[in-house]
Amino acid sequence: MVDESRYSRGVRQAALLIRRRWTVDVLTALAPGERRTSEIKGLVSGSVSDKVLAETLAKGVEYGLLERRVVQGRPGEPGTGVWYQLTAMGRSLLAALRPVAEWAQQWEQKLPHVPD
Protein backbone atom coordinates (compact mmCIF):
# COMPACT_ATOMS: atom_id res chain seq x y z
CA MET A 1 0.00 0.00 0.00
CA VAL A 2 1.27 3.50 -0.84
CA ASP A 3 1.95 5.84 2.05
CA GLU A 4 -0.02 8.87 0.81
CA SER A 5 2.03 11.45 2.71
CA ARG A 6 5.33 10.03 1.38
CA TYR A 7 3.85 9.85 -2.12
CA SER A 8 2.72 13.47 -2.01
CA ARG A 9 6.04 14.65 -0.56
CA GLY A 10 7.96 12.70 -3.22
CA VAL A 11 5.96 14.28 -6.02
CA ARG A 12 6.57 17.74 -4.54
CA GLN A 13 10.31 17.02 -4.25
CA ALA A 14 10.49 15.93 -7.89
CA ALA A 15 8.46 18.98 -8.94
CA LEU A 16 10.98 21.24 -7.20
CA LEU A 17 13.76 19.70 -9.30
CA ILE A 18 11.98 20.11 -12.63
CA ARG A 19 10.12 23.37 -12.08
CA ARG A 20 12.93 25.46 -13.54
CA ARG A 21 12.01 26.33 -17.11
CA TRP A 22 14.95 24.63 -18.82
CA THR A 23 15.64 21.60 -16.61
CA VAL A 24 13.62 19.08 -18.61
CA ASP A 25 15.00 20.47 -21.87
CA VAL A 26 18.56 20.00 -20.58
CA LEU A 27 17.85 16.47 -19.37
CA THR A 28 16.38 15.61 -22.77
CA ALA A 29 19.33 17.18 -24.62
CA LEU A 30 21.72 15.04 -22.59
CA ALA A 31 19.75 11.78 -22.99
CA PRO A 32 21.91 10.54 -25.92
CA GLY A 33 25.15 11.24 -24.04
CA GLU A 34 27.76 13.78 -23.01
CA ARG A 35 27.62 17.23 -24.59
CA ARG A 36 29.25 20.64 -24.38
CA THR A 37 27.36 23.68 -23.13
CA SER A 38 27.06 25.13 -26.64
CA GLU A 39 25.59 21.86 -27.94
CA ILE A 40 23.05 21.80 -25.11
CA LYS A 41 22.06 25.40 -25.85
CA GLY A 42 21.46 24.51 -29.49
CA LEU A 43 19.20 21.61 -28.54
CA VAL A 44 16.90 23.20 -25.98
CA SER A 45 13.61 24.47 -27.34
CA GLY A 46 13.12 28.22 -27.33
CA SER A 47 15.92 30.63 -26.59
CA VAL A 48 17.73 30.35 -23.30
CA SER A 49 20.28 32.94 -22.27
CA ASP A 50 23.83 31.86 -21.45
CA LYS A 51 23.32 33.00 -17.85
CA VAL A 52 20.12 31.01 -17.32
CA LEU A 53 21.58 27.93 -19.00
CA ALA A 54 24.67 28.15 -16.77
CA GLU A 55 22.42 28.41 -13.70
CA THR A 56 20.32 25.46 -14.85
CA LEU A 57 23.41 23.33 -15.46
CA ALA A 58 24.90 24.32 -12.09
CA LYS A 59 21.66 23.38 -10.30
CA GLY A 60 21.56 20.09 -12.17
CA VAL A 61 25.07 19.32 -10.90
CA GLU A 62 24.18 20.50 -7.38
CA TYR A 63 21.08 18.27 -7.25
CA GLY A 64 22.98 15.27 -8.59
CA LEU A 65 21.18 15.09 -11.95
CA LEU A 66 24.22 16.06 -14.03
CA GLU A 67 27.93 15.47 -13.98
CA ARG A 68 30.30 18.22 -15.13
CA ARG A 69 33.69 17.43 -16.63
CA VAL A 70 36.36 19.95 -17.64
CA VAL A 71 38.86 18.91 -20.31
CA GLN A 72 41.95 21.11 -20.37
CA GLY A 73 43.74 21.87 -23.59
CA ARG A 74 44.52 24.60 -26.05
CA PRO A 75 41.55 26.66 -27.27
CA GLY A 76 40.02 25.09 -30.35
CA GLU A 77 41.64 21.74 -29.69
CA PRO A 78 39.09 18.93 -30.18
CA GLY A 79 37.58 17.65 -26.94
CA THR A 80 38.60 20.58 -24.78
CA GLY A 81 36.01 22.50 -22.80
CA VAL A 82 33.25 21.80 -20.32
CA TRP A 83 31.17 18.68 -20.84
CA TYR A 84 27.95 17.58 -19.14
CA GLN A 85 26.26 14.22 -18.91
CA LEU A 86 23.37 12.69 -17.01
CA THR A 87 24.05 10.85 -13.79
CA ALA A 88 22.15 7.69 -12.91
CA MET A 89 19.77 9.91 -10.96
CA GLY A 90 19.26 12.20 -13.98
CA ARG A 91 18.62 9.24 -16.30
CA SER A 92 16.09 7.79 -13.86
CA LEU A 93 14.29 11.14 -13.52
CA LEU A 94 14.08 11.46 -17.30
CA ALA A 95 12.67 7.92 -17.51
CA ALA A 96 10.12 8.74 -14.79
CA LEU A 97 8.99 11.81 -16.75
CA ARG A 98 8.25 9.85 -19.94
CA PRO A 99 4.82 8.64 -18.70
CA VAL A 100 4.01 12.20 -17.63
CA ALA A 101 4.87 13.46 -21.12
CA GLU A 102 2.71 10.75 -22.67
CA TRP A 103 -0.17 11.68 -20.35
CA ALA A 104 0.20 15.34 -21.35
CA GLN A 105 0.15 14.43 -25.04
CA GLN A 106 -3.01 12.39 -24.51
CA TRP A 107 -4.78 15.29 -22.79
CA GLU A 108 -3.12 18.13 -24.70
CA GLN A 109 -6.38 19.66 -25.87
CA LYS A 110 -7.61 20.07 -22.28
CA LEU A 111 -4.37 21.28 -20.73
CA PRO A 112 -3.19 24.89 -20.59
CA HIS A 113 -0.96 25.97 -23.45
CA VAL A 114 2.75 25.91 -22.69
CA PRO A 115 5.13 27.80 -25.00
CA ASP A 116 7.91 25.83 -26.71
List the helices and strands and how they pair.
Elements: H1 4-18, H2 23-30, E1 35-36, H3 37-43, H4 50-62, E2 66-71, E3 81-86, H5 88-106
Antiparallel strand pairs: 1-3, 2-3
Write up this protein.
With 116 residues, the protein is α+β, with helices and mostly antiparallel strands. Helices cover 53% and strands 12% of the residues. The protein contains five helices and three strands. The chain has helices spanning 4-18, 23-30, 37-43, 50-62, 88-106; strands spanning 35-36, 66-71, 81-86. It has a three-stranded antiparallel β-sheet with strand order 1-3-2. The radius of gyration is 16 Å and the shape is globular. The model has no long low-confidence stretch (mean pLDDT 90).
In a few lines, what is going on in this structure?
The chain is of the alpha+beta class and 116 residues long.
The main β sheet shows up as:
3 strands, antiparallel
Please state the structural category: alpha+beta
* DSSP strand count: 3
Mean pLDDT: 90
Q: How much helix, percentage-wise, in residues?
A: 40-55%
- C-alpha termini separation: 38 Å
**Largest sheet strand order:** 1-3-2
Order of helices and strands: HHEHHEEH
Number of helices: 5
Query: How large a portion of the residues is in β-strands, by DSSP E?
Result: 5-15%
Low-confidence stretches: none
As a whole number of angstroms, the C-alpha radius of gyration is: 16 Å
What global shape is seen?
globular
